[in-house]
């Protein structure tokens, strides 16, 4: 899945999103999403990269727990036939929940 394909997929959610982060002072009010490709999990054959697989992280930020929005995100990921794992953390300094979806694309 390319950067552009991820952007088209996230646009289906109709909430603001950015790659990695929003510029200083330009972050929208929650909810919003940041996504990034933090690494790769490539497959080797004959001492070369035979197939490339990128790690994709989608970070959903909300100021309160929003199970319905999480369901929407998960429905979009499922609709694109992505296998994902989910975790959640409260970021005290930002007063935001971060729901993290991690997958290999």
Summary tags:
single chain, 105 residues, alpha+beta, five-stranded mixed sheet, two-stranded antiparallel ribbon, 2 helices, 43% strand, globular
Structure in words:
The protein has 105 residues and is of the alpha+beta class. The protein is built from two helices and seven strands. The strands form two sheets. Strands 1-2-5-7-6 form a five-stranded mixed beta sheet, with helices on one face. A two-stranded antiparallel ribbon has the order 3-4. A hairpin with a 2-residue loop joins strand 3 and strand 4. The longest helix has 13 residues, at 67-79. The protein is globular. The chain starts with a helix and ends with a strand.
Summarize the structure.
This protein is of the alpha+beta class and 105 residues long. The protein is built from two helices and seven strands.
Number of helices: 2
Q: Which percent bin holds the helix content?
A: 10-25%
- Cα separation of the termini: 5 Å
Indicate the mean pLDDT.
96
Radius of gyration: 15 Å
Strand content: 35-45%
Strand order of the largest sheet: 1-2-5-7-6
Major sheet characteristics: 5 strands, mixed
Number of strands: 7
Uncertain runs are none
What string, H for helix and E for strand, traces the elements in order?
HEEEEEHEE
SSE class: alpha+beta
């Amino acid at each position: 899945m390319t950067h552009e394909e991820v952007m088209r997929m996230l646009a289906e959610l109709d909430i603001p999103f950015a790659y990695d982060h929003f510029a200083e002072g330009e972050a929208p009010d929650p909810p919003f999403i940041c996504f990034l490709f933090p690494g790769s999990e490539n497959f080797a054959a004959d001492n070369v990269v035979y197939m490339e697989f990128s790690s994709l992280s989608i970070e959903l930020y909300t100021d309160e727990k929003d199970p319905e929005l999480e369901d929407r995100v998960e429905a979009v990921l499922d609709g694109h036939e992505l296998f994902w794992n989910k975790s959640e953390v409260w970021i005290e300094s930002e007063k935001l929940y971060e729901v993290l979806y991690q997958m290999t694309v």
